[in-house]
Amino acid sequence: MNAPAVTPPLLVVEKLRKHYLAPRKWLQKASPAVQAVDEVTFSLTQGETLSLVGESGCGKTTTAKSVLRLVTPTSGSVRLNGEELLTLSAEQMRLRRRNLQIIFQDPYASLNPRLSAGDIVAEPLRNFAGVSAAERRERVQWLFAKVGLRPEAAKKYPYEFSGGQRQRLGIARALALNPKLIVCDEPVSALDVSVQAQVINLLMDLQAEFGIAYLFVAHDLAVVRHISHRVAVMYLGRIVEVADRDTLFAAPLHPYTQILLSAVPVPNPRTPAQRILLQGDPPSPAKPPPGCRFHTRCPLAQPLCQQQSPALTQRAANPNGGQWVACHFR
After folding, report:
1. Do 99 and 83 meet the contact criterion of CB atoms below 8 Å apart?
2. Which tens digits make up the pLDDT trace of 123-163?
3. pTM to 2 decimals?
4. Which sign does the torsion angle of CA 188, 194, 197, 200 carry?
5. Are 316 and 247 in contact (CB under 8 A)?
6. Is the dihedral of CA 117, 118, 119, 124 positive or negative?
7. Nearest in space to 59 (alpha carbons), one of 43, 40, 75
8. What are the tens digits of pLDDT across the range 9-61?
């Protein structure tokens, strides 16, 4: 019997780094490098949702923008369908952008207030698709229907829509060119809870219909648990744990992941919450601690943690890709 075919990953990110030079202070010999993203590695298959989670400032959004080359990475590799994106010229990269789209966090600031809703959704078609005006109008009407907007709303302007409707516009624009990968940069954090559920369910329905892959950046773990297939936990620019959703939420291994999950509100107020308090403040990414970056706040820290940075290694195997942890004692 032949072995089952292994689906090659759609996106492969290896040892991605993005360092920013901070302003040099008076009498300072060299500008310090802010290590926003450091040695980040992950992969994503077609039709899969990988969520990046972690506290504010850990590098989630910078990682996502580096994948899209909205910011230029310092080093590393980003391959889409086996093609290296970081070595492409600006014009070559522009031609690849039809397969890479983004949904921004702020559904108002990301929409051009001078364009009607229909023109906003049609803009990618004008830039890339080379279709006639009649075909664009037909495609825009189809996209409006797909995201739950009335076709007559195409004549309105962004200020005439609610927050949830604006985000639906952003989703329709991202969907216009049938992309293979959509980066969702906290797409529901600015919305009411009831509207969040509608937008998340819409994203999941579109993924099931079109096989789109999502790189989902979020800090709301309830949303992450609902939409994700796999979850990568980031701390101070590095990934500390990767696992499928059910494994991560049921049996987290890294101390930081355990602390994050303990902060999730319990639906039943009578259920005792097993809160784990995180001590101290996060170190500066301009001067990260040696060894494991979490050792200054970790309850399991030992002298080895200060001397050697743990590699992200597989601790448990399962049909969903295994559980990978960067910790000496897990």
Report:
1. no
2. 999 888 678 889 999 999 999 999 999 989 999 999 999 98
3. 0.90
4. negative
5. yes
6. positive
7. 40
8. 999 999 999 998 876 666 666 667 888 999 999 999 999 999 999 988 899 99
